[in-house]
Amino acid sequence: MAAATGSTDAEVSSPRIQGRPWQLWASTAARLILAGVLGVAGGLKVTQPVQAVMAVQAYEIFPPTLGQFLGYALPLFELALALLLLIGVATRMTAVTVAGLMVVFIAGIVSAWARGLNIDCGCFGSGGQLGPGESPTYLPEILRDLLFLGLASWLAVFPASRLALDKAGLSGTPRDPQHGLVEALGGYAGDDEDLLDPEGVDGEPSVHLDPSDQPEPPRRPDPRPEPQEPVR
Q1: What is the pTM of this model?
Q2: pLDDT, tens digit, for every residue of 160-177?
Q3: pLDDT category, 26, cuts 50, 70, 90?
Q4: Which long-range CB contacts under 8 A does 80-85 form with residues at least 24 apart?
Q5: Contact 71, 127 (CB under 8 A)
Q6: What are phi and psi of 96, to 5 degrees?
Q7: What are the residue ranges of helices labelled H in 88-180?
Q8: Does the pLDDT value for residue 30 go beyond 50?
């Protein structure tokens, strides 16, 4: 009985979140697209560090020292996120981080537009003040980042994907010591009937996460003797 209980606890502590096949492939596409976007953006900026610093400082939001630090650090941060998405590790946590990064980018572009600045966003290298006769393209840049924000949001809700080291996409997510995963962003990647899928992810069995369906432990007999009626 102890061995069986230990096996059940081990399975619950490392669940496999399962979704429909189209959800898995959609999440795979979103993950790889974001990995490519961040990899290109970070790679272009990391080869031109001075230009990256000028792009950050052109927004006129941060003090010069902080702007210089962000200009050097942002490309490395983007490359790190791209690597995590490419290999499929901590997908949900990475997607949440990417979504937050896109919100910051959109807010920066909107701020520059509202203040009448004439700059290139610097998202894919270059950046800084535009030359005479050049016009900024703020609206297309905002729409583009909104698309990336949508992909990151989808991946945060449905992190399970194919071609990933962590197929469930949940490594790094806080866990409950009794019931395993703490679903912080919208539950599992599937409907109720998908919780227990005999096929699992890539043929590996998935685990039902509903603790109410676990078998109840056997009840111990009451050691106290039953009261007997007195003999008249």
Answers
A1: 0.69
A2: 999 999 888 787 666 544
A3: very high
A4: 81/38, 82/34, 82/35, 82/36, 82/37, 82/38, 82/39, 82/42, 83/35, 83/39, 85/31, 85/32, 85/34, 85/35, 85/38
A5: no
A6: -65, -40
A7: 91-114, 138-157
A8: yes
